[in-house]
Amino acid sequence: MTKGTEIVTGLDIGTTKICVIVAEVTESGVEIIGCGTSPSRGLRKGVVVNIDGTVDSIRKAVEAAEAMAGVSLDSAFVGIAGGHIKGINSRGVIAVSGRNQEVTQADVDRVIEAAKAITLPADRKVIHIIPQEFVIDDQGGVKEPLGMSGHRLEAEVHIVTGAIASAENIIKCAARAGLEVRDIVLQPLASSEATLTADEKELGVVLVDIGGGTSDIAVFVDGSIRHTAVLSLGGDHLTHDIAIGLRTPPHSAEEIKRQYGCALASLVSSEEVVEVPSVGGRRPRLLSRQMLCEIVQPRMEEIFTLVELEVRRAGFMQQAAAGVVVTGGSSIMEGVPELAEQLFDLPVRLGMPTGVGGLKEVVSSPMYATGVGLVLYGREHLDHRRFDRFPDRTLVDKVIKRMKQWFSDFL
User: Fold this and answer.
1) Which fold has domain 236-298?
2) Is the dihedral of CA 304, 307, 308, 309 positive or negative?
């Protein structure tokens, strides 16, 4: 590591795979220096269901990344997803208190706190508060309010919340694998850092990250995130459909999906055949590839239809002038962009990770979009405090914190 650089690690804990991306952050940008992956053993639909299995998978991915990068890792920015994730928009209003009615950083902090003041169930916690725009004395569309004059300051923010238990299980798994969590990052937010351009975010774009257990949605309009959602459908459902439909073992179904899967049956010749392993020691069979596609296509249509319904319900379908970007491991399958274009009736492209240098060819696949996005997010939040297990969750935690302050006063 050269002088003036810092190591940033992204940990993508997925249902299908664990991915660790290591990067050097320099004055010139982000240089990828290592990547490690391991099959995921312990997650279901983006949520940890087996601590030991998840920890073991993380350790293997970390070891592979450390071997490639030649560095020892001790902290990471960690992605989070799952059906428990909810996103809502909120607004806060305050009176400007700065000298000469100029907006100060203290005013910005107060108005965001005001927007954050929403009622949450006891088992949920705020993960992100993302400013969308500010309004000063009815003048909207303000992105940087500092120094502007006015009497009233309003903030429109997007708040992402998640289940405390799910977030703490992720933190616990990372800690047992030897990584301190610097921050928890919503996976579609991370993926957007690596796959979307500024122009797309400004015009309006829908990002669909199709992972193994979930499909994550993020909608950007006017340069800001406006809506997030997580669907409990992903590539593992395709694998299950293939295993049942072709009567083949799950690991064989996964291999068949990767090699021969196609989301649009019209793109496949009726003469193409696929060798399908049988169960119970029976001999393999030769089946039409089109039969495989007729199993895959309905499930992909279901995923994209649910995405459209979610975006339309939120009221942003008409604002997606830049179209749709699909990314994630399951988007690599042939025919996915073409099928999405038919269903959305919008331009669709495949989201490839960009904005990094170094060993960028190692991560030049949609399956690494979240991992690369996490290190890009980390570059912008290098001074972020270490994530501390939601310290205000219980009265006991509050008392312990207060006692520590008392003791420090006497030292």
Assistant:
1) Nucleotidyltransferase; domain 5 (3.30.420)
2) positive
Percent of the chain with pLDDT over 70: 92
Give percent of the chain above pLDDT 90: 75
Looking at residue 400, its pLDDT comes to 43
Residue 175 in this model has a pLDDT that exceeds 90: yes
Please say if the pLDDT value at position 276 is more than 70: yes
Let me know if the fold of 86-164 is the same as that of 236-298: no
What pLDDT is attached to residue 407?
A: 45
Distance CA 14, CA 370 (A): 10
User: With 70 as the cut, is the pLDDT of residue 408 above it?
Assistant: no
- What angle separates helix 235-246 from helix 289-314, to the nearest 10 degrees? 150
Q: What is the CATH number of domain 86-164?
A: 3.30.1490.110
Domain ranges (residues) in the chain: 86-164, 236-298
Exposure letters 122-149 (e unless 16+ CB within 10 A, then b): eebbebbebbbbbbbeeeeebeebeebe
For residue 4, the model assigns a pLDDT of 57
CA distance 336 to 353: 17
Predicted local distance difference test score (pLDDT) of residue 341:
95
Tens-digit pLDDT profile for residues 49-80: 899 999 999 999 999 999 999 999 999 999 99
What is the reported pLDDT for 281?
81
